[in-house]
Amino acid sequence: MKNLIRTCSLIPLIFPVLPVSAQAPELSADAPIAYSEDTGMLIATGNAVYTDEDTTVEAEEILYNRDSNKIEASGNVRVTRKGIRLLANAVTYDASNKTFSADQFRAGYPPAFISGESFSGSLEQIDFNNIHLYFQEPVPGSAKLSVGRATYVSNEYLRAENVGFSTFGNFHLPLPGFTYVFGTPAIDLDVSAGYQDNLGAYLQTEWLYPFFQTLSLGANFDLYSQRGVLVGPVLEYRSQDRRIKAFLSSGWIQDNSRKERGIDILGEPIEEDRGFVDFGIQWRNEGSLQFQGRGTYLSDSEVLRDFRRNAYFDRFHPDTFADFTWQKSSFLLNVFARTQINDFYQMVERLPEVRAEWLPSEIARTGFYIQAAATATRYRLQEIIPSTGTVLFPSNSLGLPSMPIAGGLFPGDMVSSEVYQRLDGTATITRPFHGPSGIDLVLRGGARWSYYTSDNPFPSGTTSDERLMGELGFDLSQTLARTYSVELPKLGIEKLYHQSRVSLKYRWHPGAEEAPNAPPFDLYPYHASPTTLDLADLWQVDGLRDWSVARFGWEHELMVAGSEGNYRDFLRLNFYQDLLLSEDRGEDQWEAFYAQLDFTPAAWFRLQFAQKFRPEGFTNEAAFMRATVRSSDLWSVSFQAEYLKSAIEQYRVDGWYRLSETVGLFGNWQYDAFLKTWSLQRYGVSKRFANTWQVELYLTLTDADDRRGDFGVGIRVNWLSF
């Protein structure tokens, strides 16, 4: 339904006015142009044609009054303007006040098509009577929206009365009249059905309807033959000034299958009453203030995985937070709060965290720049104990300690640590120098001070501790660029732009061992790509260490252009090598080597690759690769590989093939090398009906998924219009 609302923004083009252009209008016909002294009209008959700068009107007869600048066209009227086609019995346009009208019209501005009894209005407002709207070219059985009366106000709203939805000729569904404000939530409908071992036969639906200008209401409504009925309200809100956005999606089910409910990630039996609530809000003013909040409540760790699998991948470790930011010139004030409202995920809660940040600014025109930040945090750890069975990622880059990630836990309890307070301040001074031949040098120096307090004594017997760290370093780089003329006619390439950049970054951070009582909460999260080196931007405040590191970089960017002269991305190739100069026992001095590639030689092929490699041990720690080959809209094949040492090794193939204009085949295959099994196989066929919706029928085979049956069939309806 969202596509329909977007179509309304094209109405001024579908029903064009005939403006007075800089180019003088021309009037022609098969018969000689006649002039009526009584009416002051030029009369063109027999294939009459009126043209101006961007509009052509064809009709059996056209009357044109040069004094009043008015046109009256009748008899098989055809209006063409910038790819638009309008057919009507009669069209009248008064250029003096820019108003127009037509009766029994049909108009097309692909993919929008409209027909109706009459319309009249101006650029600012158009009134319609008895119209039918199609999103694709009408064919027998096409879905359409019938509107008795409608008013369109440019860039503001569309008001409709006597609305009905029709499809397949006989089916007709009356709908409430509505006033739609452009940019606010629109009519939306998502339907899927099928059979799955752990669900039985099922029907999943989610719908929204704009009952008010700013508010759309709807519901999640699912039927499962083995599990029960899931139902819950859905809403979307957007204020008229578009500064406030909010949403809510929920569902509740009395799950009848004790066997399929099983246990949660803590090993506890899942209760019969299950549900979820996902909500969020955003607010901003004209630029200096903004607020956002997001939260997800789950009755158990597996409810989304069972009944909203697509949402589960986005919210498998749900977060609940509120974030407020105020900006004035180069100063930012941020208040951030996070709390855990679920009982089965670890989280470091912020209760809250207040941060003031001064963006880089020059010191009295000296060429030196200063930036600073101060943070006050009250935080605690919501921890699952015992945490046996946790997964540790591979050795972290730069010799920083690994942070355990919960997974495969044995039965445990959520335990709250005591609350700690932390003051954290940073200040950095930089001095950039720009030399010849693209050479740039940035010198930097800074400090970071952290102060910890607790209501209870630390192991050392004190209730406070502090750390003062320094930073010295530099960024040295040279950037070279050149444009070449080449001849690659098969790829449509005539010019190539190449930019190369070599860089050396060095950082020394002394003094990290001064706070042995810092709570181990904000530690280093694992990254498979190069991390920041700047002391002020390091996130692992509680896990900082005395270290010295150098990073070598070599970056390439190639862009190509054809005869039209427009450049596009062709190749990005980057290499980075970290050298750890303060390694401890067991650490590699030649730290991780990173490679990144994004190659698009033509529209039909793209290759992406990223790797993290350990040179001293000659081991591949992490890698990602995706290659896509397509033949226009006829077929496409994509291969993807993901690898993380001792944790992940998966391969996936996705493909589709178009058999005809309306029928296609698709499939997905995923292999897990650790489990040595095909974890997912999907085979499907798609069919487009009446240019209105796409219906997909598929068979799914899965393995090694405790929350999903081994076999399933499904049908999904994707609405192409309305």
From TrEMBL:
<dbReference type="GO" id="GO:0009279">
    <property type="term" value="C:cell outer membrane"/>
</dbReference>
<keyword id="KW-0732">Signal</keyword>
<protein>
    <recommendedName>
        <fullName>LPS-assembly protein LptD</fullName>
    </recommendedName>
</protein>
<feature type="signal peptide">
    <location>
        <begin position="1"/>
        <end position="24"/>
    </location>
</feature>
<dbReference type="GO" id="GO:1990351">
    <property type="term" value="C:transporter complex"/>
</dbReference>
<dbReference type="InterPro" id="IPR050218">
    <property type="entry name" value="LptD"/>
</dbReference>
